[in-house]
Amino acid sequence: MSWLPATSSRAYYPLKLCLSNRINSNPLIITRGVKYGWYSGKTRGAKPLDYNMGKDLPILEHSPEAALQRLNKTLPSRTGALAIKKGMTAIYDVDTGVRTPCTILQMDRVQVVSHKTFDKNGYFAVQVGSGWKHPDNVTRPLLGHFARHEVSPKKYVSEFRVRDASGLAEIGQLIGPEWFTEGQYVDTRSDCKGMGFEGGMKRHNFKGQPASHGNSKTHRAMGSAGASQGSGSRVLPGKRMPGRMGGNQVTIQNLKVLKTDSEKGIIILSGPVAGPKGCKVEIQDAIKKNMAT
């Protein structure tokens, strides 16, 4: 018996040649990125208009200039205003009887304080102040800032970015509820209620542990924080745990202006606004709705 392997009549071809034959027979096979799990070939059925807003719009351009033009369209054309949240109520329609929850906001001596221009600051913005603050409780640099623009010291100061120089309101101009029209849509920004340090059940809606059957003093505890060997003997980053809850800025978009009262300085918006009573609320024209709507 010979130690040589038995010869076979079957022909063996290189792997590269086999793949080329398969690709020629089936053009949908993608050779790039298969090893790493990402798809680098052309998507089947993809059209240039699939990545655009509509057929009437041009194809998106991938350039810094085009990106800046798209960014400018996401900014409002005029400045916003400051208000104080007074609470929530409801308005009933006399004809249909529909109940609409709404939030009452009050504007107190809202005034334009200063500007920020593209040449000096790199963008256009309007600094708006609200309320009144005693000069003894204001620092000297801030007092000089108000005095330079001939504006009384304000309790709240916020900045509103605008699209271009045409949106820079005149310094010292008073802004009241008539700045917004009934029926238009606005966006609000305010700090939500701060809950302090909270546990896992309230912060992340954890189920908790049993109330009895051997459980002792861990009824509201979160339990295990992670595995040992499977997670590398560590707690993975981003693990939901007890911690500080609330107190963050929340933006609510597309709130409809139901009513305005210039004499009382009140503006009524449909729906809720984040934050407790007495908090500062920034109001600006909605970026996803036209002024006409």
TrEMBL record:
SUPFAM superfamilies hit by this protein: Translation proteins
Protein family: Belongs to the universal ribosomal protein uL3 family.
One Pfam family cited in the UniProt record for this chain: Ribosomal_L3
Alphabetic keyword roster: Ribonucleoprotein, Ribosomal protein
Regions of compositional bias (Low complexity) in chain numbering: 223-233
Organism: Golovinomyces cichoracearum
One GO biological process term: translation
Gene3D superfamilies noted in UniProt: 3.30.160.810, Translation factors (2.40.30.10)
Name of the featured protein: Large ribosomal subunit protein uL3m
Superkingdom of the organism of origin: Eukaryota
Renumbered residue ranges of the record's region Disordered: 208-235
Residues of the signal peptide: none
GO MF term set: structural constituent of ribosome
Keyword Ribonucleoprotein: yes
Keyword Translocase in record: no
A GO cellular component entry from the record: mitochondrial large ribosomal subunit
